[in-house]
Amino acid sequence: MHRPGVDGSAEGPSLPSAEAAPAEAPALTLGASLIPPQSVSLQTGLVSNGTDADAELDNEVYAAIDLGTNNCRLLVARARGRGFRVIDAFSRIVRLGEGLAANGALSQEAMDRTLEALKICVDKMNRRGVTRARSVATEACRRAANGVEFLARVEAETGLRLEIITPREEAELAFRGCAPLLAREPRRAILFDIGGGSTEVGWVAIRPHRGIELLAYRSLPLGVVNLAERHGARAYCEVSYGAMVEEVATALQPLEAQCNIAAEVRRGRVQMLGSSGTVTTLAGIEMQLQRYDRSRVDGAWLDFGSIGSISRRLAAMDCAERAQQPCIGRDRADLVVAGCAILEGICRLWPVGRLRVADRGLREGILFGLMQPNSSISPRRFRN
Q: Which fold would CATH assign to domain 168-362?
């Protein structure tokens, strides 16, 4: 499945305060070609926006790697029209950030697991003849005392050079990748990406024929891995689950105070778009899928009532029961409830009523950036 995404004391290692974009930060304009929404299929699908969809723009083969706190992901694609065609993909749960909140460093076991996944990525890139690539690392490597050291080891053993990106750039790339799913109306939107080590939340304006502007964002140091580790991860009671939801809603209050989003929600002027394994998992459960089907989930809608009922049902299960759910499985059974709590915290603060589900995000955002002729990114020529 795409991405994940408690009984236990709320006590745990202290976490740094959430990072908010300064009010004077320039708005990010994402190209108008990202609107209107279109659909994407995973392995050989076309990511497009309706113009010259079958025309090859160039002979380059592009790749994007997203190394997160919980997952290692790769997309390989060729440019087509205003979009791209995915020719290969890879995703593996590596739990790079396992134990990071308690120890402040990446464990040897987690680094070994991640290195093996990255070797598979490099092998796929070589076999596909990748010519231009960008590989990024996010919260786990940002926070870990040995994050830079680990990336040096990755380069030495694989030839792959990963760059640690800032929370703001992580948000920009994720939002760029899922922006094609935004409708033209309403003209304001809440976008979010629930990750393993952090959650990025953005407030955007939709400008027809111009793209979208990221007006403000907040990066919460709360993801499915660190939140689950602090709250027990195996079993939850109503009180402990409610405490996680409240923690997330409280952490988002500065963004609400800055932008007065709730007032726009009350006027019916806001849409919501979520990119995470949490929302794709809940969508699959809502559809009663016996096996995850990305073509049905990506772009689907989830009502807040369904989000609440499914989340509470999962929280009431033990880990073994959650593992038996077709769209969860053993690898995510101990993390999905933390993701549900993050999602419910967002929904509680801004009761839009429903959200659109995105099984896409940072990797797609990287590829859009690499393929733009006027991109400020300098993609590396991939040679290995």
A: Nucleotidyltransferase; domain 5 (3.30.420)
